[in-house]
Design brief:
It is built from eleven helices and twelve strands. It has 463 residues and is α+β, with helices and mostly antiparallel strands.
Length: 463
């Protein structure tokens, strides 16, 4: 068991349960299950069995049942992407997102992305929300408008200077329509690229393919914005070089024009006491070329992939709201939701009957945002499903080796199984132990990564 000093601050009930779990005769097997989940904070419990047989001879090669597992259950990872719900599974999701984004920047032959994609024009663009009223901030020079020099972690950062005039309704409606606004932006971007190349839309499709991978991030004021890797390929995708006129400079100009074009707006009609609104991207538009190596002026492939992966596991809970759907407004009091987030949530509640097709109350915990947090175009890179399948295949190979089935033809193997859902989660003591296991696993991974980095650095110096 991990160092008991890490459990010194536990309350008596949790500590007593932890000692109960650790004293069980099957504790080692329970610990092994949790290690296999990566230290999952909310594992899924299954009961059942599997039978592996040779189809040609009928011989039983392996039989497994959960009857002999701790509590008669097999525990598997929950797979939740939110770091607030399960740090261990979110770490895996962030890693997958990192590899997905990075493969679209540097290539990955194992995933059919050629390394020549590195030579394609690509930029890192950030599209922000417009202003809904002045908020407390930390300007680069000077003080906040309120006259106070706030620290970076001050709770007041991002909250309204004057809640009475802040447009909370406009903020949640913008979040709610942000996905539609992105779709309009990408459509207009293709038109802007065609116009600058002197081509029609059809001719552009025969010459260039627009590819992107993006992630959504909540600003502290509760407004959504998007970070996107945007790349130009030849018509067949990443393996196809774009024409010489398709440059990063042309792409940058096209992005600026598309973001500001009247087509890239969303019109929301007036309803009852709500005025008509026109939503467009905010004035802050950041576009930077992506370079292979750090030259002090632009961002690198590594930095971009890490940045996108970081925000792939976060959502609106970073603003103080809840990380799950809200049943009643009374939950806000029980969970001590701060005033700014509370006002945004209440705006969703009040606006929901006025815009029934937008389902604002269902997405109130996301401050109205109803889109996917991490998306990509079809040919940008590999997929999360492919990465998960590679991991599953690797584990299946390990399992076959453990069972001594390396020499058995997979096509002659028949697997029968019956699984039933039996619950989820941990007892308080199990939860404390699982958190420590997750920390140990992460420390081991970081140590191995640093060792590999040092090794590669030494090899590079030697050459």
């Amino acid at each position: 068991m991990s160092d008991t000093a890490s459990f010194a601050g536990l309350d008596p009930i949790t500590l007593g349960d932890l000692l109960r779990v650790a004293s069980q005769p099957d504790f080692d097997r329970w610990q092994d299950q949790i290690k296999r989940t990566g230290g999952c904070a909310n594992p899924i419990h299954l009961t059942g069995w599997s039978l592996t047989k040779d189809k040609t001879t009928g011989q039983t090669l392996h039989h497994y049942t959960t009857e002999h597992e701790p509590g008669g259950r097999l525990r598997i990872a929950c797979g939740n992407r939110r770091a607030s719900r399960c740090p261990a599974c979110a770490w895996t999701y962030a890693g997958d997102t990192y590899h997905l984004i990075r493969a679209g920047l540097v290539g990955d032959t194992d995933k059919d992305i050629p390394t020549t994609v590195r030579d394609h024009p690509r930029v890192f663009a950030t599209l922000t929300a417009p202003s809904f009223g002045p908020v407390h901030n930390r300007p680069t020079h000077g003080r906040c408008r309120c006259g106070t020099p706030h620290t970076e972690d001050a709770p007041v950062i991002g909250t309204a200077l004057d809640p009475a005039i802040y447009d909370y309704a406009g903020a949640v409606l913008f979040n709610n329509h942000a996905g539609d606004l992105w779709q309009r932006f990408t459509t207009r971007l293709r038109r802007e690229l065609a116009a600058r190349a002197g081509l029609t839309r059809r001719e552009l499709a025969d010459a260039v393919r627009l590819s992107y991978g993006k992630v959504a991030e909540f600003q502290k004021r509760g407004a959504i914005h998007f970070h996107a890797v945007i790349r130009l390929d030849g018509p067949d995708g990443p393996e196809d070089r774009p024409p010489c006129w398709a440059t990063a400079e042309l792409l940058t100009h096209a992005i600026r024009a598309a973001a500001a074009h009247p087509y890239t707006t969303i019109n929301v009609s007036a309803v009852d006491d709500q005025p008509a609104r026109v939503f467009r991207w905010g004035a802050q538009l950041d576009i930077r070329p992506i370079k292979a190596f750090d030259d002090g002026t632009d961002i690198t492939e590594q930095a971009v992939a890490s940045y996108v992966a970081k925000y792939a596991t976060k959502a609106a809970e970073t603003t103080g709201t809840l990380d799950r759907r809200i049943g009643e407004l009374t939950e806000l009091d029980r969970h001590h939701v701060p005033d700014h987030a509370r006002r945004l949530i209440k705006a969703c509640k009040l606006l929901d009957p006025l815009y029934p097709d937008r389902r604002l109350w269902a997405w109130a915990h996301m401050l109205g945002f109803r889109g996917h947090f991490s998306t990509k175009s079809r040919r940008y890179s590999t997929t999360l499903g492919t990465l998960r399948q590679l991991r599953a295949d690797y584990r299946a190979t390990q399992e076959r080796h453990t069972l001594g089935l390396d020499d058995t033809d997979p096509d002659t193997v028949l697997v029968l199984a019956d699984w039933q859902y039996a619950g989820h989660g941990h007892t308080p003591g199990e939860s404390a132990l699982a958190a420590t296991i997750a920390q140990d696993l992460q420390l081991n991974r970081e140590t191995a990564r640093e060792a590999l980095h040092d090794q590669l650095a030494l090899e590079g110096a030697a050459t």
